[in-house]
Design a protein that fits this description.
heterodimer, A: about 160 residues, alpha+beta, Ubiquitin-like (UB roll), DNA polymerase, domain 1, 5-stranded mixed beta sheet, B: about 290 residues, Uridine Diphospho-n-acetylenolpyruvylglucosamine Reductase, domain 2, Enolase-like, domain 1, 3 domains, 4-stranded antiparallel beta sheet, about 25% strand, globular
Chain lengths: ~160, ~290
């Protein structure tokens, strides 16, 4: 066993301290150490996008990062977006446009879309599709996901 | 899968990182963005006993301008390069290429030097380093050295880096005036590695091409420059017959692999088609810049 490290990390605005093994992936830290199971684990090698979180505001694959690297940084997970009965505009739009079927990819889609909406104009549906190209939905429900994000773009002022 | 156990060192300076690497011998790996390394760890294709994290070294992610060049710090993230006003002004072909690198979450985290050091045969950055005649500054326990991109890529996933070497900076010479550019890529899905990609620049003078560069990726073990094809363009205007001869020269210069994604013949065909398109765009932009 390798030497453990003590880390301080802020997740969804709350400060945590923990002692971790260096090889602990951020996904497992979030889900198993902190019990925040909204972040899903699909492929564990950066292909499916299900584990996407925001690291100091920028989207990142939580399976391609070690918890020890998050020391001193801020993480936002899907749990930060809203709650039942009080969803944010993007979540409402996913609900309204039926942008989820089984829901497995949804946390990654929401976190990716949050960063895309902040960084790109997403003027065309093609831009949205390109932006989502790193997130797999095996129900293949992309059409509705694109529509949900399009609706948020078109409302402009409600961008996250 | 989960990565094997390792010890972790967060370096706060190049000197500290170099020393940690030198002490560990061949048994340490640098982690920067981790976007290629961590999958290999998760699959246990690599089992380093020590990871030296260079993410906390300050000043290593700066994009700066000198009179002759743009200097890009090793830890610069793909997204930073994609959106850099300095790159957009002086090396717009690179801004365009960066939009093809993987997906936003990966561009946010992956680093320029990491992509060059990894040297995937179908990645965009090695091709762009070759196109732009980049130089890499490398630190090690033995001191500093500079390597030209053309000498750096030795084979698939193989570069001129020893175990204790760290790339610190990439120097990209500015393009001459009256230069146009083109970038063309075909991938199965946006952000995937290229089946084939071509980047070209042409510099025009008095209606003829004075300097031409053509770089390709995805069509061999490393990215490459098509020097013979470039030579055909010098002193001429871009005309269909000439483009066809250049395309033939490019197809003759490459030996693409057949894999699950595309056959060798298809990649060779694509390389030619994309060369034609990239040159046409480069010629048009060069012409517009003189208008």
């Amino acid at each position: 066993m390798s030497k453990t490290c003590e880390i301080s990390v802020t997740v969804n605005g709350k400060a945590y301290r923990a002692v971790v093994e260096p090889r602990l992936l951020l996904t497992d830290f979030l889900r198993q150490t902190l019990g925040l199971t909204g972040t899903h684990v699909g492929c564990e090698h950066g292909v499916c996008g299900a584990c996407t979180v925001l690291l100091d505001g920028d989207s990142a694959r939580a399976c391609l990062m070690f918890a020890v690297q998050a020391d001193g940084r801020g993480i936002e997970t899907v749990e930060s977006l809203g709650r039942i009965g009080q969803m944010n505009a993007l979540q409402e739009s996913f609900h309204e446009h039926h942008a989820l079927q089984c829901g497995f990819c949804t946390p990654g889609m929401l976190m990716t879309a949050t960063d895309l909406l902040r960084k790109y104009p997403l003027a065309t549906d093609d831009d949205i599709r390109k932006g989502l190209s790193g997130n797999l939905c095996r129900c293949t429900g992309y059409e509705h996901i694109v529509k949900a994000i399009r609706a948020v773009v078109d409302k402009g002022h409600q961008r996250p | 899968m989960k990565p094997p156990a390792f010890d972790y060192i967060a370096a706060d300076s190049i000197a500290m990182a170099v020393e940690a690497l030198a002490q560990a011998g061949d048994d340490a790996k640098i982690i920067a963005g981790g976007q290629s390394l961590v999958p290999m760890l998760n699959f246990r294709m690599l089992r380093p006993s020590i990871l030296v994290d260079i993410n906390r070294i300050t000043g290593l992610d700066v994009i700066a301008e000198t009179s002759e060049a743009i200097r890009v710090g090793a830890l610069t993230r793909h997204y930073q390069l994609e959106t850099s006003p300095l790159i957009a002004e002086h090396l717009p072909v690179l801004s365009c290429a960066m939009t093809h690198v993987a997906h936003l979450a990966i561009r946010n985290r992956g680093t320029i030097a990491g992509s060059l050091a990894h040297a995937d045969p179908a990645a965009e950055l090695p091709m762009m380093a070759l196109l732009l005649d980049a130089e890499l500054r490398i630190a090690s326990a033995a001191g500093e050295r500079t390597v030209a991109a053309r000498d750096f890529f030795l084979g698939a996933l193989t570069v001129d880096l020893a175990a204790s070497d760290i790339i610190t900076e990439i120097v990209l010479p500015k393009l001459p005036p009256r230069t146009g550019w083109g970038f063309e890529e075909v991938a199965r899905r946006h952000g995937d590695f290229a089946l084939a990609a071509v980047a070209a620049t042409v510099t025009v003078s008095g209606g003829a091409i004075e300097q031409a560069r053509i770089a390709l990726t995805g069509v061999g073990p490393t990215a490459l420059r098509a020097h013979e094809a470039e030579g055909l363009l010098i002193g001429h205007a871009l005309e269909p017959d000439l483009v066809n001869r250049v395309i033939e020269a490019v197809r003759a210069a490459i030996e693409p692999e057949t894999d699950l994604h595309a056959s060798s013949d298809y990649r060779r065909h694509l390389a030619g088609v994309l060369t034609g398109r990239a040159l046409a765009a480069a010629w048009r932009r060069a012409y517009e810049s003189t208008a």
